[in-house]
Design goal:
Elements (H helix, E strand, L loop, with lengths): L8 E3 L6 E3 L6 H6 L5 H8 L5 E2 L6 E2 L11 H7 L11 E4 L2 E4 H10 L8 E4 L12 E4 L9 H11 L1 H19 L12
Antiparallel strand pairs: 1-2, 3-4, 5-6, 7-8
């Protein structure tokens, strides 16, 4: 006759569901467990702070340690088939699959690009494939953008904010240099 074994169970401190001892784990290890899964352990040990989804920018509370997306749909939408891991847009042109910024540059200069030629996005936005944002490089490009390109981009696209910020800093400098920032009214006639 087989020996009957007792099934050990506990209640998860996070989700309040019962969980059971795994067949090959010891009773002493099972008695130390407080949570039914790694997910519940993570939720209990980490202060739950909402973060912005990398796909749709909505706030959500992550369930796992390195979770960047609020749902599977956001993950698959951002990593869609027509983009590379760095989120460059791909297109089909002349029967060949290629990166859209390379195709735009080929049309702009009127010839096919060599493998060693690189197309650089001036403003850093890899989805902006307009000809005024692209430039042709003959060797590997450094990461980031040139400072002058970024200044030009912000002045062109955010002129009102730049002017407001510059006038704000000028006002601070002027008030700091005269009277230590205090305004003294002239009471005399």
């Amino acid at each position: 006759m087989k020996k009957q074994t007792e099934v050990a169970s506990r209640q998860c401190e996070q989700c309040k569901l019962n969980f059971f001892k795994k067949p090959r784990s010891s009773i002493s290890l099972f008695s130390m467990r407080k949570y039914c899964s790694k997910t519940c352990q993570y939720k209990a040990q980490v202060k739950l702070v909402s973060i912005a989804c990398a796909g749709c920018c909505r706030n959500f509370v992550p369930e796992r340690r390195r979770q960047r997306f609020c749902s599977v749909e956001c993950n698959s939408n951002l990593r869609r088939k027509n983009s590379t891991p760095r989120y460059y847009v791909r297109c089909t042109a002349d029967g060949r699959r290629m990166l859209e910024h390379r195709y735009v540059m080929e049309l702009h200069i009127g010839r096919t690009l060599h493998k060693w030629e690189q197309v650089h996005h001036k403003n850093g936005n890899t989805l902006d494939n307009s000809t005024d944002n692209l430039e042709l490089w003959t060797r590997q490009q450094p990461t980031g953008q040139r400072v002058l390109d970024m200044i030009d981009f912000y002045i062109t696209h955010y002129r009102g904010l730049v002017v407001a910020r510059l006038s704000e800093t000028n006002d601070k400098e002027l008030s700091g240099s005269v009277g230590g920032g205090l305004c003294v009214a002239n009471s005399g006639g």
